[in-house]
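Course exercise 7: structure representation. Students receive a sequence record and must write out the corresponding structure in token form. The form below is the worked example handed out in class, using PPM-type phosphatase domain-containing protein (488 residues). Read each field label carefully; the graders check that inputs and outputs are placed in the correct fields and that the protein name is recorded exactly as given.

STUDENT ID: A-19
EXERCISE PROTEIN: PPM-type phosphatase domain-containing protein
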Amino acid sequence: MTSLKQKVIGFIRQLSVSSVPEDRSAENFIQNYLKGKEIHRNEPDILHGRSPPELPRRSIGNLYHSVLCAMTGPDGGLTTVNKQEKHLSASDPDINFIDDQTDNVGVQDINSNVAPLSAKEQKKLIPLQKSESAPVYQEELKSGAVPEIKDEIAGVFHWKHPHNRAFGASTTLYELNPLTKINAGEPIADCFAIVARKNSAILVLADGVNWGHKACIAARAAVHGCVDYLNKSIFSLAVEEEFTTTDIFLSLLRSFNSAHNLILQEEGMLTTLTAVVVLPLANSSKYIACCCNVGDSLAYVYSSRYGVREITQGSHDVHSMRDMRDALGALGPVDGQNPELTNLTLAMTEVEPGDLVFVTSDGVSDNLDPVIGKFAGLPTVEAYQRHRLTLLRTEDLIRNGVSGKGPSVTCAKDLVTSLLDFVTRLTAAKRHILEDVDLYVNNEGKDLSRSEQRVRRREINGKLGLVPGKLDHATVVAYSVGELDIPS
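STUDENT ANSWER:
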């Protein structure tokens, strides 16, 4: 009988043809970068800070209020929690942990180029108002394709309206137990939501820390609380005054207050949270992407002209190697009541029609890292080089597809599908090794005890380190910038 060790060694020898996508272009962009041949592209700046006055104030153009498409997941996403949430406003005493950073931000001008907040601006978002209802598509309702929903959830009536230009998906990269037929790490502890209007979008993603039901609840509660606040504050029918990016950042910070409080209310544990609001700029054909994040769920922009840039870059030090097991920050009861906001960061960058804005959990971003992905022929690289090569790897996938032969990604749905396909293929070797029945039963076919299973797993740890990828939950949510038509 073939031993477990022999099976693993044999499988590793077959990796290049059976499991890992051919890295046909890796040498090209890796070597060009390391040899200094990468063409410098004068991409739009990414500005970041800890409070709204640290960022430039830009006027927002006219906004449409009706929701054209909305999507959340996995398995119902934010709709599965808090259907009768308590009202949260900026005056609630429970949300002081973030308001301490924003209530007095206008007292002193942090940046000489940024004017302090006026009293009018600081109060503009209070109180919350109901957002405009999502439109009811009469033809679909008549045909029975879309059931009429009378209750609003997080500012939206219809959450099952995906669009090629506004899309998200989640999957698990963990192995399937050959006996129970259940994936390790169940349930998926990620949650996403996207709400798109004619000329704007809200993208939110949370990654529950560790495994289990309470991590899953934390992610779903965070997304629910955040999206609910953003829908009702930015798109309130009662708000007729002009918005600036300063108002948007205040709304983002307070949406994180709402998210944290809802986690506590739902008795969830810890989660990362990243939210991006894409809005048109006044008197311009361009848009602005405003982002708030805590933890290691990252946001990006892809432009056919400039490639991929990371909006959340200011939330982590790209010049130092970090422990990828450390989320860097989290909402939820880190110390029993309060969150960990060490890397809470605001960021903004200009985007153009046709650009793709997307957010990923670390199950995707870590697997795009050249070291985790074990790029062929990769020499020892510095931390900042790893970061740049990760962006180049992502750009290459978007331009050339997983096969390297195209077609290139042109819409949000294709981007989500392509990235999840890549990380699923990359991690196939690890899953194959861990799904060997010999890890779960003895030679007589009897189930091994948990302690016996752990012993056998330790025997293959060294072999697992030889194959690429990291097992995790993987989620991507994406939006194609520009005016959106009625869902197709």
